[in-house]
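It would be a great kindness if you could assist me with a short task in structural biology. A protein sequence and the structure tokens that stand for its backbone fold form the material at issue. I should value your view on which stretches of the chain appear to form regular backbone elements. The record follows directly beneath this note.
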Amino acid sequence: MSSSTVILSVLPIYILMAGGAALRKFGVIKREHDTGIMQLIFSVLLPCFILDRTLGSEVLRNWQVLATGTGLGFSLIVIGIGISYLAGKVIGITPDKGIRTFALASGCQNYGFTAIPVVEILWGSSSVALLFVHNIGVEVAIWTVGPMLMSGATGVSWRRLANGPIIAVIIGLTLVTLRVDHLVTGPPRVAISMLGIGAFPLAIMMTGATIMDLVGTEKPSWKIVTTACVVRLAVMPVIIILCAKFIPMATELRQILLVQAAMPAALTPILLARLYGGRPGIAVQVVIATTVVSIFTLPYIITFGIRYLNLSPITP
């Protein structure tokens, strides 16, 4: 699979993101609409998408695969945060200047709205279903390690994990494990599928609109954005791909890790920085810089990983 084929495969995602940014710029997507739109995505559309991809997925009947996926989701985020913290110290970011925010922002890759469509484009529904399980580990890491790192506290707010997507994963896994998922059929299943289809075009456009809001909020530090790009788009891809190569796991999980290796920084650390007294401006710089640079690095990381891991994408 050539890098140009990968570019053409994932280009619609970046086009939608740019479209969301343009619609925000011209006032079509207004900020006062954001809360309602995001609630619709997280509470209805995304859970329906998750159920539609989870029901009937044979790979989810293997508990060893599920445990490996969740464990890697958690572990790789923690490793990324640790490496980012060390990188921040190397370039001289001190605690009072936001090293904790830098570590969290650079260490957490996008695991949702950008990653999921790429996984589906390249590998299909089976890998998407396992990605949701992998993301449980990611969510646990972000909402436990993240707040503790940002605030210095030792307590954990587990209520943050009780959200629509995770509840949908649990329901889907339960039905699959009990082998009654085939009973969800007919008009209800069609309705779930129809609602799920709308999740990602809308979510990706909202991501673009959010990034547009963040542009220009703080003067960028070239030291911070350069180091973040090196960590997020060079160092961590090597580590994640090596894990996919040498740790025994299902093929679908290798496919997921390859896409995770190519992802830019996640948006969630911006929220965490705001909630727990961090430096949101640093997280904003990291997100914008890695998202822009990933347009150019993603095809080459994916192409290399496909050959190195001996994977076969469904995209011709």
